[in-house]
Write a structure and sequence with these properties.
By secondary structure, the chain is of the alpha/beta class. The chain has 12 helices and 12 strands. α2 links the parallel β3 and β4. The longest helix has 19 residues. The chain starts with a strand and ends in a 22-residue tail after the last helix.
Length: 321
């Protein structure tokens, strides 16, 4: 590329070795604070999660051929227009599968065994064993969405000894051969003791956990959502949670409004975490590597993670930024 503009980058995002590698793919790299400062002759853009690039913005850059997203979600980029103009858009997929999956079981175990209370109590010098926990083994464990994170979640649930079922828009023979049973979505919700939601946010999946489905969760069910909250009818969820007959856990709090968070805060059965599921050392390093490789492979004529190569609907990640 002749000119690569990095929007809202200040240089701290990567170590020097990564920047040096990136510089080997382009004649000139510039760091700009906003989209308005992007030079008109730019042919490559690097942007951060949440960046917006609509057709009018792209039209102002006649040489633009590449947009690289430092993250998974690319909903702010008009990928349809980009495709029509021959602009390649890449993102970073599947870099935090292990982190998100392990986080899911971490918060589940913390709840089932009351580990936070036990740790705090021991820290204060109280070593009494007045606790009663519950096990994952033997529970009916439902996984909604069997992408990479869903598959990993289902397989770990099997390893714990749970009776695991899944729903996905497409049947997964390999998963079923491994003992993960396919269920109708409504039946899965109605029958499961533990449910995890592992779907990308698209026009097809937005609001998929409808008010009717929120009402189908069994009494005392645990519902874990390491995915966008737009997948769920939030109003129906808060009404159900106020009945105090199920547990809900989430980590996409950074994408929620203060009003929504304020509604959940008083509810003891709504357990909200910061968006930390994807934040592991390993995932962070893999994210950087994939990002740089996307640029490298595009320049080489073999683009990877190309979201404009098919008619993909702009979507948020299965979990991760």
């Amino acid at each position: 590329m002749k000119k690569l503009a990095c929007v809202d980058f200040d240089g701290s995002e990567f170590e020097d070795s990564y920047w040096n590698e990136l510089d080997s793919f382009t004649e000139k790299r510039v760091l700009v604070a906003t989209a308005a400062e992007v030079p008109q002759d730019t042919d490559g853009l690097l942007v951060k999660l949440g960046a917006t690039y609509n057709k009018d913005m792209m039209a102002k850059l006649p040489n633009l051929k590449y947009i690289g997203m430092l993250g998974t979600g690319f909903g702010g980029i008009d990928s349809g227009f980009a495709k029509s103009k021959g602009i390649t858009v890449t993102n970073i997929a599947d870099y935090a599968t292990e982190g998100v999956t392990e986080f899911t079981f971490g918060i589940l175990l913390e709840y089932l065994r009351d580990l936070g209370k036990a740790r705090s109590q021991a820290k204060e010098g109280n070593y009494s064993d007045d606790f009663s926990g519950s096990e994952i083994k033997g529970k009916k464990f439902g996984v909604i969405g069997l992408g990479d994170i869903g598959v990993r979640t289902a397989r770990l649930a099997l390893a714990f000894g749970a009776e695991v079922s899944y729903w996905s828009r497409n049947r997964k023979k390999d998963a079923e051969d491994a003992g993960i049973k396919y269920r109708d979505l409504d039946d899965l919700i109605n029958e499961s003791d533990i449910v995890t939601l592992n779907l990308a946010l698209t026009t097809e999946t937005e609001g998929i956990i409808t008010a009717a489905r929120v009402g189908k969760f069994k009494s005392n069910a645990i519902f874990i959502n390491p995915s966008p909250m737009e997948l769920i009818d939030f109003s129906a969820l808060t009404i159900r949670l106020k009945k105090d007959d199920m547990i809900f856990m989430l980590d996409h709090s950074d994408e929620m409004s203060e009003v929504q968070l304020g509604q959940l805060r008083p509810l003891k059965n709504a357990i909200v975490y910061p968006a930390i599921a994807y934040l592991t050392h390993e995932a962070t390093e893999l994210k950087k590597r994939i990002f740089i490789d996307n640029v490298k492979n595009y320049v080489a004529g073999t683009p990877t993670n190309n979201v404009t190569s098919t008619s993909l609907t702009a979507a948020k990640a299965e979990h991760a930024p």
